[in-house]
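Q: what sequence does this backbone want?
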């Protein structure tokens, strides 16, 4: 009986087991509830160990001093340049790494630059489009060069459309 029950609950996470323990007590015997409690403790311990292993693997090799910007080995307790005492507690908290991953995702999203504003301005004020296009064409980045060409083309189209409209209206 106990082995069958353990096989049944082995796929559940600690959170799932906690939910079962808190909301479905009437469905289980006292021994089963005790086994669920034991499994919760085991899984929480495994989770803590996994977090600690993750933290150990992701500790930085170096720290930059917030006072003097000197680069120090991570094992230093104080800056070797200015004597500032490092507070390394954040590096031993799993939430720091989760936040860092989130910031990296946001940074990757920010790297996809948007040039919509420049496109609209180039259409409404062609001279600005020509100037921005020329500036971007002088850059080394291929994406910026491509945007520069597009801005100039949009400026030309705007002039052509404006000319055609003025011919038909007058």
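A:
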């Amino acid at each position: 009986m106990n082995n069958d029950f353990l096989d049944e609950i082995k796929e559940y996470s600690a959170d799932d087991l906690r939910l079962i323990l808190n909301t479905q007590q009437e469905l289980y015997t006292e021994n089963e509830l005790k086994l669920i409690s034991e499994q919760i403790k085991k899984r929480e311990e495994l989770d803590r160990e996994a977090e600690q292993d993750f933290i150990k693997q992701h500790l930085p090799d170096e720290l930059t001093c917030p006072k003097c910007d000197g680069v120090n080995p991570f094992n230093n307790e104080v800056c070797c340049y200015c004597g500032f005492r490092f507070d390394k507690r954040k590096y031993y908290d799993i939430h720091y790494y989760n936040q860092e991953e989130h910031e990296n995702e946001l940074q990757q999203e920010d790297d996809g630059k948007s040039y919509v504003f420049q496109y609209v301005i180039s259409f409404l004020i062609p001279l600005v489009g020509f100037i921005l296009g020329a500036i971007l064409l002088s850059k080394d980045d291929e994406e910026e060069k491509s945007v520069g060409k597009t801005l100039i083309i949009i400026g030309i189209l705007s002039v052509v459309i404006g000319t055609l409209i003025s011919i038909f209206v007058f």
